[in-house]
Amino acid sequence: MAERVWLTGRTFFRHYADKHEVLFAGSGELQDLFVRAVAEGLESAAPIDALAVGLDALSELFADRREFARKRQAVILANRELRERELIKLASLSAALADTLGRHGIAEPAASLTAEVGIAAFRVGFERWIAAEEDRGMAELMRESLDGLKAVTSGRCG
Amino acid sequence: MAERVWLTGRTFFRHYADKHEVLFAGSGELQDLFVRAVAEGLESAAPIDALAVGLDALSELFADRREFARKRQAVILANRELRERELIKLASLSAALADTLGRHGIAEPAASLTAEVGIAAFRVGFERWIAAEEDRGMAELMRESLDGLKAVTSGRCG
């Protein structure tokens, strides 16, 4: 039994070069899914609504991962290096999104600004989703984030 | 003469614990100025217009620093550790801004979303301002950033 646990541990660490790697193992999947869903949304919708399509896709991806996400966040917040890596992940996501928007005919600076809006909605929506007392679904909170951004920028806020 | 240069170098490094420190020496000043100007703007304007007040203040601060900013950016982009530090600086700026907005009666998530909008406008406007061929002033580019964000979120874009 002890040996089996040890083997499991070895297999685990063979997959993830360092023990923190597992915390970022899904980053590529997240980025690909978000960017692909936004690109699909752009076929028939304005950029802001394409972001909503992307955020819906992420909400499905994360649907049954709330407890993992909460534990992951606690580990990341406690470690400066991991916080840096999380920021890099989001900056990379923003750049990939801006790139895709550009390839769909959206000029700069609108492409970069739209990407930043998408990341802002995701970041704030995600933080609320993993908050201790929160039990609403991610899709609802992401829509609230986007609506909140619309309200802020239209001056209908505060 | 050689000795004087050496002394100057020593004085320089006594001020800045490592040689990269000088690249971030103005971060605290930037954050204080931005947050204070936004807080003043909030006395008489909606949050989105208070962000414009903050961005105007930053534009004055940076007015004669475009060449330094371009060189600084080149150094930062070439070094992963410095890129991380730059991202942390912006995340800290966003948190400080959200905190100030909260203390001026703006509830969450509006405070965090407004702060993210401000950082997005600053980030994109700053990148354009230091672009090689750009000669318009920072204030104009920051206003274009904010206007671009309004256009994106209102669906008047793409």
Q: Which keywords apply here?
A:
homodimer, 158 residues, mainly alpha, Tetracycline Repressor, domain 2, 7 helices, 0% strand, disordered N terminus
Structure write-up:
Two copies of one chain form a homodimer. The first copy, chain A, contains seven helices and no strands. Helices cover 75% and strands 0% of the residues of chain A. The first copy, chain A, has helices at 2-15, 27-42, 47-62, 66-77, 80-103, 110-129, 138-153. The longest helix of chain A has 24 residues, at 80-103. The first copy, chain A, has a single domain (25-154), classed as Tetracycline Repressor, domain 2 (Orthogonal Bundle), CATH 1.10.357. With 158 residues, chain A is mainly alpha-helical. The A-B interface holds A 42, 46-49, 83-84, 87-88, 91, 101, 105-106, 109-110, 112-114, 116-117, 120-121, 123-124, 127-128, 144-145, 148-155, 157-158 and B 42, 46-49, 83-84, 87-88, 91, 101, 105-106, 109-110, 112-114, 116-117, 120-121, 123-124, 127-128, 144-145, 148-155, 157-158.
Topology diagram in text:
2 copies of one chain form a homodimer.
Chain A: H1 2-15, H2 27-42, H3 47-62, H4 66-77, H5 80-103, H6 110-129, H7 138-153
Helix pairs in contact in A: 2-3, 2-5, 3-6, 3-7, 5-6, 6-7
